[in-house]
Amino acid sequence: EPGKSTEQFLTEADSAMYEAKEKGKNRVEVFESSMRSRMLERLEMTNGFRWALGRSELFLQYQPIVSLSDWSLHGFEALVRWSHPSLGLLRPLQFVPIAEETGFIVPLGRWVLTEACEQIAAWSRDSGEHLRLAVNLSGRQLMSLRLADEVHTVLELSGLQPDQLVLELTERVLMEDPERSAAALHELRSVGVRIGVDDFGTGYSSLSHLQRFPVDVLKIDKSFIDPLSTASSDGSPLLVAIIALAESLGLDVIAEGIEQEHQLQRLVELGCTMGQGFLMARPLDPDQARSLVADYALSAVT
Questions:
Q1: Fewest beta carbons less than 10 Å away: which of 5, 14, 92, 197?
Q2: How confident is the model at residue 206 (pLDDT cuts 50, 70, 90)?
Q3: Could you tell me if 83 and 169 lie in one domain?
């Protein structure tokens, strides 16, 4: 295009490349002007990563995981947020992929694990409840040679019992290198933690593949739960199969994204025992989550 410098062409090519990478493998994208603003946001995030932890811009929220039969509190999933000084409140989908590309995901993941374990350990001590904590791991973290040692150290320092911690990975991460993933998971299991597969049903694996991994928990992706919002929908055959087969393998099943009563009722009928979603509670700030734990512990006594 006339009038453009080589530097401009390279910048626009980079923008199109990142757009293609975000949309999946083996894609080609042509530069559009809207990509420029997204590229600038990426640069702001990339430059901001180095300061985010030191400036306390990152914080955690906790979404309750409950028993679907009686709504008793099972535990929490830790969710990281970024209060960016110029971009505002950012959710994981907005910055975690960029953190993975830049390598910031490793210190970020270490901070999330440490902060969440300390928090849940304190709530467990104060309430007397054996709360479970779900924390997501990235592919880079899983392949770290020191991961098991780091997890062991965090557990010892925080006082959280190993079986209270569930380390979650997506199917995509597990299947990128199944043999190395299996070896890393077995090493983590030797520490005593539990392993969960997040967003199950959306990736490359199948229930048969699960047998090669030491998995304890399946989290069913929200896309399988959404169709249950209509009274005429009983759920896809795959949803029914996931719940039934996971139960036969002795795996805990957690449904994500429950928002309506009909979804809850149908999941209970199918044998799903646990869930999380806006119907139960939105992600909570630490003070709100602590109050929820205290109220639950009090109600359990009375």
A1: 5
A2: low
A3: yes
Distance CA 211, CA 246 (A): 11
Nearest to 114 by CA among 155, 53, 69: 155
Query: What is the rounded distance in angstroms from the CA atom of residue 66 to the CA atom of residue 260?
Result: 15
Report the alpha-carbon distance of residue 268 to residue 273 in Å, rounded.
7
- Spatial separation of the C-alpha atoms in residues 53 and 95, rounded to whole Å: 14
Residue with tokens 């309430």: 127
Say whether both 131 and 193 belong to one domain: yes
The structure's pTM equals: 0.85
At residue 290's C-alpha, the angle toward residues 285 and 293, to 5°, is 125
The count of domains in the chain is 2
153-166 pLDDT per residue, tens = 999 999 999 999 99
pLDDT in tens, 22-62: 555 555 555 456 666 777 888 888 888 888 888 889 999 99
Residues 158, 184, single domain; the answer is yes
Specify the DSSP class assigned to residue 77: E
| Enclosing H/E stretch for 61 | strand 58-67
DSSP 132: E
Task: Look up the domain containing 169 and give its range.
Answer: 55-301
Amino acid identity of residue 134, one-letter, is: A
Q: How far is CA 261 from the centre of its chain?
A: 24
